[in-house]
Amino acid sequence: MPRTRSSGAIAVLVSLAALAAAGCGGAEDTKDSGASVASGGGEKLSLVAYSTPEVVYAEIIPAFKGTPAGKDVSFKTSFGASGEQSRAVEAGLKADVVSFSIEPDVGRLVDAGLVAKDWKAQTPTKGLVSKSIVAFIVRKGNPKQIKTWDDLLKPGVKVVTPNPFISGAAKWNLLGAVAHGGLGYVEKLIKDHVSVQPESGREALQTFTGGEGDVLLSYEYEATTAIKKGEKEIELVRPDSTVEIAIDIARTKGASPAAKDFADYVLTPAGQAKFVGWGYRPVDPATAARTKSQFPDPAKVTTIADLGGWSKVNDDLFDPEKGKIAKIEEDAGVSTAK
Question: What angle do CA 161, 163, 169 make, to 5 degrees?
């Protein structure tokens, strides 16, 4: 089966580092290869994040700029696959605030001396900005009747999920598969049913809505976002067992003082409401209580802590040299190069 490999990763890193060196600016919002700039007087903040919450920050940034703390702050933003974004910051891409889809992508910057070791203690949410769950996105009417993880192994069912060695979303997806059926299940899924593995969650959604596959493994909010943006031919399915997704936010060392104001604002009820509007589960307790009915929990929800934590998971499953899932992906013809 055709696979999408990670051959573009180095080119993306070079491009992002070049953007950092160029210091893009202008009088109006602009977009260029996934980066946008909103310029003005006062302090300038660089936000580097994984791909899918771009629509959320497009609402949060103007709202923050409407507050006393944000009125003279301008922004440069960059969105892409979580692992590539983290490596780009490590390589020199300017960042004051980062938000990645898995904790190890922040950990890489801690190891590089770019983010403080106590970054989780810098927010009341222990470093979290939002949550979600691994879910299924299917065609309108759910013609293949995909309701459970076992349904993904039905004869003829084709599955789309990103490459876990580039995309944080893909790691969460496969952890959902591990939590359901162990490595044997994962092997059958990847070898017999995964038809393509794009480089990011956003690309995976575009691939699916473009006609590839019967089901997309994705975050719950991917379906909500796509439907809100006018996609009418998909539906969300929450399997009865899944994994909770934890999304992180952190400030870099030496970040502009406005970075703390912005990170604080993102976690206020006003900021969290923007996430809720696009289908993200809030981490602010008051907002979570108010919106509980919007986010039903499946019967069984496994956390990363239940699986042993990211350090264990990365070493045991995703290490390119010795990881068990890495071996399964290699055997299926997928590159594990980062």
Answer: 65
Q: What total number of domains does the chain contain?
A: 2
Q: How far apart are the C-alpha atoms of 318 and 313, rounded to whole Å?
A: 7
Q: How far is CA 46 from CA 31, 288, 316, in A?
A: 14, 28, 34
- What residue numbers bound the domain in which 178 lies? 131-244+299-331
Q: CA–CA separation, 301 vs 316, rounded Å?
A: 21
What are 238-283's pLDDT values in tens digits?
999 999 999 999 999 989 899 999 999 999 999 999 999 999 999 9
Q: Whole-angstrom Cα distance, residue 281 to residue 302?
A: 16
Question: CATH number of the domain that 32 lies in?
Answer: 3.40.190.10
Would you give the end-to-end CA distance of the chain in angstroms? 21
Q: What is the C-alpha separation between 274 and 57, in angstroms, rounded?
A: 8
My answer on whether 158 and 271 are in the same domain is: no
CA distance 16 to 28: 20
If one compares 30 and 244, the residue with the highest pLDDT of the two is 244
